Amino acid sequence: MSTRRHFLQKASLTTLALSLPFSDSIAKALGQQEPKVLRVALMGLGSYASRVAEAMKDCSRAKLVGVISGTPSKIEQWKQKHGLSAQNCYSYENVDQIKSNKDIDAVYVITPNGLHKEHTLTLAKAGKHVICEKPMATTAQEGQEMIAACKAAGVQLLIGYRMHFEANTLDIVKKQRAGEFGKTLFFQGLSGFVIGNPSQWRLNKLLSGGGAMMDIGIYSINGARYLLGEEPIWVTAQETKTDPVKFGEGIDETITFQMGFPSGATASCLSTYSLNYLDKFFLSGTKGFAEMQPSTGYGPIKAWTHVGPLQHSHVTHQTTQMDKMAALILDGKLPLIPVDGEEGLKDMRIVDAIYQAVKTGEKVII
Ligand code: NAD
């Protein structure tokens, strides 16, 4: 009886806590700490930043509180649209002043790839945690410098790998680790889309670091690693170009590549800027298989195995990603598939090796 009374008292206090403005203090009185919220500023207000900002409206652990942009009119629009305070908005010229801003915990770098290193180093120096978009940099060397800078500054560096939190992906990863497909010896990854405007930064080597491989092929590299649960030890690669004007020096249009793993597993992948609807993963084992198509687009992701389809409902990837990244930064809660700088660096080392294999025509040992 006393247990029931205790329960009723606690339940009515909880109801009160939810309905009153001073819910914080009541929650504390109940011994329930409100979970902390990660206060995030977005750097680079392009198309992906807009998607992330929309998705963050549904987050419970992460909140958009500021922006960094080179365009004053965009800052005004974003202030209005997202209710941001002027003190939390910066330009690239004065962003170092973010150091003294106690209302921003982390900055999400969503600028062109060629600027990721410079921006990460600036933010680490300012003492802010950094979430940086993929590819983390344009070379493994840059990635290493970013990791070192964040470590020296005592801030976390995470890479925007949204698929690492996606329900179908995680389900297949768990099944693979549990041996449901037997020994997994083959992965196929197909990643591509037809790129439009020839004057965009994605086709400018200095800003992109490369072509389709940097942008979309990296999903097949990353997918092979998390679905096979191993790190490749060699790569071979071949490049083809149908439009050398649009895809100039250092900008890969299409690359087919192969990776070999310690278990004897191999991966066969295609990365291209010249085919649409190319978004497919296939994992084959001695006892079964898994297939995903689409496998890395914004969703809904469709996945099935030798047993039948997976039935996970769609949640906006960036909403889950930002909540889980907040839990990682604030509570140290590690995800099943890592999203730290070292994870980004592993992909960059493979990208470097693939470009070397294309150049030399030889198998490159990693
Ligand atoms: P975008 O062109 O739409 O936006 C880039 C932003 O950076 C623009 O607001 C632009 O003004 C700004 N910028 C700052 N300095 C610049 C400079 N010197 N030159 C050009 N632009 C400059 O690009 P996006 O699609 O938003 O991509 C940005 C980053 O996000 C890239 O690293 C990309 O790989 C990544 N991305 C990730 C995903 C994902 O699903 N994880 C999806 C799309 C893009």
How are the elements arranged and paired?
Layout: H1 2-19, H2 23-29, E1 38-43, H3 47-56, E2 62-68, H4 72-82, E3 89-90, E4 106-109, H5 116-125, E5 129-132, H6 140-153, E6 157-159, H7 167-177, E7 184-192, H8 205-208, H9 212-228, E8 234-240, E9 254-260, E10 266-272, E11 278-285, E12 289-292, E13 303-305, E14 308-309, H10 317-331, H11 341-360, E15 364-365
Parallel strand pairs: 1-2, 1-4, 2-3, 4-5, 5-6, 7-10
Antiparallel strand pairs: 7-11, 8-9, 8-15, 9-10, 11-12, 12-13, 13-14
Helix pairs in contact: 1-2, 3-10, 5-6, 6-11
The structure holds nicotinamide-adenine-dinucleotide.
Quickly give the structural class.
alpha/beta
- Distinct small-molecule ligands in the complex: nicotinamide-adenine-dinucleotide
Approximately how much beta-strand content do the residues carry? Answer: 15-25%
**Rounded mean pLDDT score:** 94
Low-confidence runs of at least 5 consecutive residues: 1-23
CATH class of the largest domain: Alpha Beta
N/C terminus separation: 66 Å
Number of strands: 15
Global shape: globular
User: How is the CATH topology of the largest domain named?
Assistant: Dihydrodipicolinate Reductase, domain 2
Proportion of helical residues: 25-40%
What's the order of the H and E elements?
HHEHEHEEHEHEHEHHEEEEEEEHHE
Separate helix tally:
11
CATH superfamily of the largest domain: Dihydrodipicolinate Reductase, domain 2
